[in-house]
Amino acid sequence: MCVSNDRQRRVILVTILLGLLWRAAPDAFADTCCPWSQVGNLAHSRVGSSSALLSTGLVLVAGGFGVQNDPKKFVEMYNPATGQWSPAKPMNFFRAHHTASLLHNGKVLVAGGFNGSVDAIASAELYDPVAGTWTTTGSLNVARTRHSATLLADGRVLVAGGDDGADLMSCEVYDPATGQWTPTGSLNVTRSLHSATRLPNGKVLAVGGRPTTSAELYDPQTGNWALTGFTNQVHFFGHTATLLRSGYVLLVGGTNVGGSGDYVSTVELYSPGTGTWSTTASLPEPRGSHSATLLPDGGVLIAGGITSGIDEDDRRTYVYRLLFPPLGSWTSAESITVRRFDHTATLLTEGRVLIAAGKDNPSAPVITEVYNPAVTDHDPAGPMTIGRRFHSATILPDGRVLMAGGQDPAFQTLSSAELFDPVTGLFQPTGAMAVPRRFHTATLLPTGQVLVSGGTSGGRSGTIESSAELYDPASGQWLMTDSMNAARHSHTATLLDGGQVLVLGGTGASGALAQGESYDPNSGFWTPLKGPLLSPRSGHTATMLGNGRVLAVGGNTGFATAEVYNPETGISVTTGPLPANHRVGHTASLLPNGLVLVAGGFDGSLPRWEASLFQPRTATWSATDTMFDARTEHTATLLPNGRVLMIGGSDADQYSHVFTEEYDPAAGKFALTLLVPARQQQTATLLLNGKVLLAGGNDTYYLGSNTIGIIDSADVYDEGRRPPTSLLPTFGPLSPTSPGATLAIVGTGFAPPHEGSSGRSQSASPANYPLLVLQREDNEGVAYAPVTVWGASFLFDLMSATVPATMKRGWYHARVVVNGVPSASRLILIQ
User: How far, rounded to the nearest angstrom, does the alpha carbon of residue 70 sit from its chain's CA centroid?
Assistant: First the structure.
């Protein structure tokens, strides 16, 4: 294309320079706000607490000195979706420096610790995350604190050492089936504040706990401990031990004799194959009482702790990567906000790391922080069989994506359709629609067919359609179905809890419509709604809320308004006023915390930067962080990491955006993330592999207001956890189920030995167990199906989960997440 003026040349030059910068340093565009972000504060500071990632996706923090005099303060719960803490049911006993272990039945076992008088206790209790209750279980045979607790491969829990006023050698095993503890073989030396790491062969490696270089292995088959190789440096306590994916154990820092200033920088690797230790790259400065977290990409994050240097050193963060044993390297990461040591670190489902509690001088911090390790990326796909914009994109039950209709580069409306295969990354033609369409809707029905309705056919002006047709993925053909009662385009279509498709608003022959109708897949007929919208709307958004009602926002009729439509009664209720004029071209996303994020759009004069949050409980709006770029006709996609991805759209000068940004609901902030090819009026589809397919649209508005380039290019956006393919959990197709039902899943990778939140046995919150996440396909609502059974069989891993009884029926992406690593999704129908 010929470039005719200086402005156009400058835009092209800037785009090229940005592209070169992206190629040279892609990390510079990732989370420009900071890898660490502060989230909600604990209600109470605490030292010696435990943390546990629950099967509900929440984090349970229990006990710790500082809350021992008030049972209401014993336990707090962190919700990663909201970034906030809330009180939870208190334990039956106060305890600090105890252990917490998530069992195969989804319950959390807490054992031992100090009581409020700083005496070791023997009591143990269980937390049920579904019921939200604590119940006592069998007591330890020996009162102990500062011990280790290790979940064995068979589901039992090994407790080793600790102290009851004096360091202990005794060990015992908890059996969840009986609720009782049984003594087992004793350690060869007394150990307290040691580390205990389960190896891939099922044995447990104990290191430290006294000023010795000895280490020993526990064999669950014999119940005995045996000495293994000696470390090169004494790691008395405050060290961390992390099982790497290579099978080596990474031993980092700690103190060598136990006094202040005796921290070491020595880092060692243990080889289970040879039973020997070797040194690897040392820490930049001596450090102890830090946390260690195995990240989804295999690096180990060291955060916090105490150093021998200045206070600033204590806040520094490092990531270790094993290059070729024993060679390794350390890289600096952003420092945490407040210094802390003996804190907890929890690898969350979305791959981020939560650090909380611990000590500081002069007081313990209540501030909690989250680290985001992801580096986003994108790869080209396609090309499409033809350039198209204003088309629809619908994921099919088998994971392919159906592209239908739209407008081609000659401004003709298309009847053609094509399929994108995520496995090959290629597009191929499929059956054509009977009617050319653009500005139509496409809805995946419970039957697996796709309903396409309305739209505009013909050239630039076009004819408004009332017709509808069904796509059959099995045959690749379309079948006409009953026509709508009113011809319309730029309407919305929402799959309801009962399986009907709710169509609201749109533009008809006489302008914007208030009337709606619903399609019944069983009968194949359309029925007018019981009542109209309060305002005619076209170009609006419609989002099904958790209660089954539908939030309609905007439309090209004056200042943006919003209403909540009840499909059961046909009655709409207006909401409070919006903070910004999101009129048309905006996006609406149902967040994991239940709020609705409305972002950008066109106010009749200019695109908007603002974003607003809708609270369904109060039907009120509030402003949130503004986007970096004003956008209209962009896309918004809820990623598996819980963030909302904003891509493309145009700005006030009709330039197509090249920068993407993500909204973090927990922090309430936008962050620039990636440079991608410019486009607007495209589609964005969350694929089953967790990536986002960007297809078609218009990429040349930024070259001049009078040129339109409808494109056939496609890109795949990756949120960036980057785990090896061999570590992805896998499972087979899922049969339809119903709310409240038990879902049995067979697969692999549900219970690896590597613990995402590893390190010190007293405060670690392992994440090496499956969590089942359900994300609704059409409105992006997210829920966890609590896992009640998990474990490994001879050939496969097994798990059972309970679908929440409150789940609305429809299609869901079901994915299993282990150690922050998500599986590819399977579409499951909840009916």
Answer: 34
Please indicate, yes or no, whether residues 688 and 823 belong to a single structural domain of this protein.
no
- Contact (Cβ atoms closer than 8 angstroms) between residue 797 and residue 791: yes
Domain shared by 92 and 163, yes or no: yes
| Mean pLDDT value of segment 751-765 | 76
**pLDDT 10s digits, 79-103:** 999 999 999 999 999 999 999 999 9
For 22, the token pair is 């992206």
Cβ atoms 534, 523 nearer than 8 A: no
Measured in whole angstroms, the distance separating CA 594 from the mean position of its chain's CA atoms is 15
Residue in the block written with tokens 């039907």: 619
The answer to whether residues 545 and 590 touch, using CB atoms and an 8 Å cutoff, is yes
pLDDT in tens, 140-149: 999 999 999 9
Taking the C-alpha atoms of residue 467 and residue 585, their distance in angstroms, rounded to an integer, is: 25
Instruction: Taking the CA atoms of 79, 82, 85 and 89 in sequence, report the sign of the dihedral they define.
Output: negative
CA distance 167 to 258: 14
What are the φ and ψ backbone dihedral angles of 239, each rounded to 5 degrees? Answer: -90, 170
Domain boundary (329, 349, 371) is at: 371
From 526, 499, 498, 529, select the one nearest 513 (Cα to Cα). 529
DSSP state of 775: E
Cis preceding-peptide flag for 326 (omega within 30 of 0): yes
Contact by Cβ (8 Å): 613, 595: yes
Distances (CA, A) of 716 to 73, 135, 425, 430, 675: 46, 48, 9, 21, 13
Q: Do 669 and 597 meet the contact criterion of CB atoms below 8 Å apart?
A: no
**Element spanning 75, H or E:** strand 75-79
Across the range 651-665, mean pLDDT stands at 84
Q: Are residues 785 and 756 in the same domain?
A: yes
β strands within 422-536, DSSP E: 426-430, 441-444, 450-453, 456-457, 463-464, 468-472, 477-481, 492-495, 501-504, 507-508, 511-512, 516-520, 525-528
Statement to judge: residues 343 and 205 lie in one domain? yes
Q: Which SS3 state, helix, strand or coil, does residue 312 take?
A: helix
661/794 same-domain check: no
684 and 762 part of one domain:
no
Q: Please give the backbone phi and psi of residue 54, each rounded to the nearest 5 degrees, phi first.
A: -90, 165
Range 130-156 burial, b when 16+ CB lie within 10 A, else e: eeeebeebbbbebbbbbbbbbbbeebb
